[in-house]
Design brief:
Elements: E1 2-7, H1 14-25, E2 28-31, H2 32-42, H3 45-56, H4 62-75, E3 81-85, H5 91-103, E4 110-115, H6 118-132, H7 140-154, H8 156-162, E5 167-171, H9 176-190, H10 198-206
Parallel strand pairs: 1-3, 1-4, 2-3, 4-5
Helix pairs in contact: 1-9, 2-3, 4-5, 6-7
The structure holds adenosine-5'-diphosphate.
The site of adenosine-5'-diphosphate has 18 residues, from helix 2 and helix 3.
Length: about 210
């Protein structure tokens, strides 16, 4: 299985790259932000509680997102692998992810961090806020708080994967296609691409 943790501050381009990666590698995309927004849209109790924190740019409690990821893994037993987007955001979340994946006989293959500086993030998120409908993208104070939360609480998750030799950093400023190519090059080190069974076909020809 190929399990990618796609990492980086809000606005780094994780969602954009995830869409391209799921198409190429046939992975299941698990974004805790999307899962939480789905709870809000359904008006669940969990969603109502999470909305208050999300609107303020604060993290929702670890156990909430860990529970959601645990359920999603169970619902996708047949997946070829996962992209974790926006998760883990704290070291306890990273430790829980290791435990959850171990229970499914798999593990994190690698983390790719998209690095983008604060002023560019604010610019991108305010632009996204014009169309995303997300309250947390429409207010510069809330955006700045999310970036601060990333720097104080989330950035240390990179160290967690660095000690496991799974950490790769990329410049998140540049052409979307170039950045995608660089992520694919990293993923292909972990799982060589086998487009449409070509390797098997080659073996059959040789035989
Ligand atoms: P962005 O990366 O642009 O901040 P997300 O959709 O990943 O957007 O997250 C939106 C909000 O959802 C976060 O600011 C936070 O309140 C909440 N959230 C998402 N994922 C997590 C997580 N793993 N742990 C805690 N809170 C989370």
């Amino acid at each position: 299985m190929l399990n990618l943790v796609l990492f980086g501050p809000p606005g780094a381009g994780k969602g954009t790259q995830s869409q391209k990666l799921i198409a190429r590698y046939n992975l299941v995309h698990l974004s805790t932000g999307d899962l939480l927004r789905a709870q809000i849209a359904r008006g669940t109790e969990l969603g109502l509680k999470a909305k208050k924190l999300m609107d303020e740019g604060l993290l929702v409690p670890d156990e909430v997102v860990i529970g959601m990821i645990g359920s999603a893994l169970q619902e996708n037993e047949q997946a070829a692998g996962f992209i974790f987007d926006g998760f883990p955001r704290t070291v306890p979340q990273a430790e829980s992810l290791d435990r959850l994946l171990a229970a499914h006989d798999t593990k994190v293959s690698c983390m790719v961090a998209l690095e983008v500086k604060g002023d560019e993030l604010v610019k991108r998120l305010l632009e996204r806020g014009k169309t995303s409908g997300r309250p947390d993208d429409q207010d510069e104070t809330k955006i700045s708080r999310r970036v601060t939360v990333y720097n104080t609480e989330t950035a240390q998750v990179a160290g967690y994967y660095a000690t496991q030799n799974k950490f790769h950093a990329l410049n998140g400023i540049g052409e979307i296609e170039d950045i995608f190519g660089q992520i694919c090059a990293i993923l292909d080190q972990h799982q060589p691409a086998t487009p449409s069974g070509s390797q098997q076909a080659a073996q059959e020809v040789k035989a």
